[in-house]
Amino acid sequence: MKKKSVKFSKTVMSQIMLPGQANPSGNVHGGEIMKQMDNTAYVVARKHCRNNVVTARVDEMQFLKPVFVDNLITCRAHLVFVGHSSMEVRVRVEVENLETSEQPEVALTAYFTMVALDEAGKPTAVPGLKLETEKQKREYAKGKKRYQKYKNDKQK
Ligand SMILES: CC(C)(COP(=O)(O)OP(=O)(O)OC[C@H]1O[C@@H](n2cnc3c(N)ncnc32)[C@H](O)[C@@H]1OP(=O)(O)O)[C@@H](O)C(=O)NCCC(=O)NCCS
Q1: Scanning 12, 19, 26, 71, which has its CA 20 to 30 A from the CA of 134?
Q2: What values do phi and psi take at 153, rounded to 5?
Q3: What is the pTM of this model?
Q4: Residue 156: per-residue pLDDT
Q5: Domain spans of the chain?
Q6: Mean pLDDT of the residues in the chain
């Protein structure tokens, strides 16, 4: 299978936060933002492999800034590592107050492991990742460590 670049599947998705997604004080529920992150990771993985994909794992989810009703959130996601049937996607969420001219801030970050499934619902091979920059190589090496740790822990 031909390798594909990181930029081939890189994805950006934005959404305005609505009152139904928040608590009575206007703070958006973490799960609402995680859903957008999961959607974005899904698109990245699906673009890369062209198969059905499911979420198998989320690592290092960090909530760094609060998100309020009427904020714009932008999920930026790209592949960092690819195994045989699994793909690790880094998702960064920026929050922006559209009432002011302040710059967007990073509100959440996480790594989503997505697994490609064939028509029978079984894990299936995905294309490799073509690494084109030093940053991509560094991220790939870290992703490979998380992948190997999961494999080692599973054997225990
Ligand atoms: C994800 C799933 C398909 C894996 O099935 P499985 O029988 O465990 O398959 P395998 O053990 O062969 O693993 C397949 C790949 O997934 C990876 N994987 C499976 N579970 C994982 C986990 N918890 N964390 C990280 N990677 C995982 C494996 O490392 C393997 O990667 P590789 O092929 O790149 O080496 C299965 O656990 C599942 O269906 N889970 C529910 C998924 C779901 O419904 N998500 C929410 C809705 S989208």
Answers
A1: 12
A2: -60, -35
A3: 0.97
A4: 85
A5: 4-155
A6: 97
pLDDT tens string 126-144? 999 999 999 999 999 999 9
Q: Tell me what pLDDT residue 92 has.
A: 98
Using the mean position of ligand 1's atoms as its centre, give its distance from the Cα of residue 45 in Å: 14
127 token code pair: 């294309």
Helix (H, G, I), strand (E, B) or coil at 64: coil
d(CA 91, CA 76): 6
Residues 116-120, mean pLDDT to the nearest whole number: 98
Pocket flag, ligand 1, residue 143 (CB < 6 Å): no
Best CATH choice for the domain 4-155 from the list 3.40.50.920, 1.10.540.10, 3.30.420.40, 3.10.129.10: 3.10.129.10
Instruction: Count, in order, helices (H) and strands (E) of the chain.
Output: 3, 7
State the distance from the centre of ligand 1 to the C-alpha of 55, rounded, in angstroms. Answer: 8
